[in-house]
What we know:
Layout: H1 11-18, H2 20-30, E1 38-42, H3 43-56, E2 62-65, H4 72-79, E3 84-89, H5 92-100, E4 107-109, H6 116-124, H7 126-131, E5 132-136, H8 139-148, E6 157-162, H9 185-197, E7 201-208, H10 211-214, H11 224-253, E8 260-263, H12 269-273, E9 280-283, H13 285-288, E10 305-316, E11 319-323, E12 340-343, E13 348-349, E14 359-363, H14 365-368, E15 375-379, E16 392-397, E17 400-405
Helix pairs in contact: 9-11
Amino acid sequence: MNVFRVTRVTGYRARVLTDRDTLRQRLDKITGHLETPLAVVDLAAFDDNAERLTARAGGKPIRVASKSVRCRSLLERILSRPGWHGVMAYTLPEAVWLVRSGVTDDVLVAYPTVDRAGLRELTTHPELAAAITLMVDHPSHLDVVDQVAAPGARPAVRLCIDLDASWRPAGPLHVGVRRSPVHSAAQAGALARKVAERAGFQLVGVMCYEAHIAGVGDDPPGRALRGRAIRLMQSRAFPELLTRRAAAVRAVREHADLEFVNGGGTGSVSATSADPAVTEVTAGSGLYGPSLFDSYRNWRPTPAAFFALSVVRRPAPRIATVLGGGWIASGAPEASRLPVPWLPEGLRFKADEGAGEVQTPLLGEAAERLRPGDRVWFRHAKAGELCEHVNELQLVDGETSAPALTYRGEGRAFLG
């Protein structure tokens, strides 16, 4: 299996990348009547990404990661496409809202919950309990559920075990994120046995997200040595994961009839879907094509989501300053978490100021041609976090656009 196959840039993506000036003119024209800041999603690029992800999944269903979309209209759009089924939510209140809103009847909550209000709602409504699966990695998560509603007084609560995908090549060395304490097949089997012994629960799934493969770009710009090191790590870590994940799934199946085994993310859809132990993959970020995916060799989505800020002054001939701009992505604090000034082409941040809270100076030849009132279009580093800054997205379809509320616009603060 060639996990890290490099693909050529063709089709719609190629046109977007090579004709950025035309894209800028189109976005400026379509949204010219709107005030900034504003955010758009180009539906042609969004649909192109969805189609290409489906092809990469090789026939296995894709569960959409809602944290990377955060817009109900776009979740409904993607779920209407062949090959996409179910949502991976990030909190229980979000999962309840998605089911009650009719977006889906199949939600996997990606992280363990201790939200007692959400658990009370889940355990008092059989239709919610049948549609929502909770994540667990320790028996204490079951204790929290039992404290809210006794086993005999509630419908069975659906559970999924979070299997840690990180690579531990020797001793204390740990490569990957710190998620679940369940790492080995023996630990997965032991937890599955404890769940099976508890009344009021139904173990239906295993999730294993290989963040060090799906979430780490292997070709960071200007960092060739780091790129080689990442590719070496991934080439060693992925075969180990295939063997361990298969063993863990077998161990869990000794105690439960699993409905699904979930794995992967946008950066590993092709490789993860080829794993016989996996029955479904997850993707979300690839629909928007944020700038972090510019550092991936095997697959780069079409840029589909942008936000615009207005030029408000010209402090020097080759500097244009926009209002706002400090839309920094979560994660390790480094340059890759900054938004990318995308249109017009040829802009860059001032090294000692970066993306500012109130204003952002931009340098480069393109800055010399900008005047107050002009717009600069940016790409956010991460997908769904863009929606935390705006109440609505303008969904661009050809030469027209229509607004769609984000989670924020619907008054839904699922991360507090």
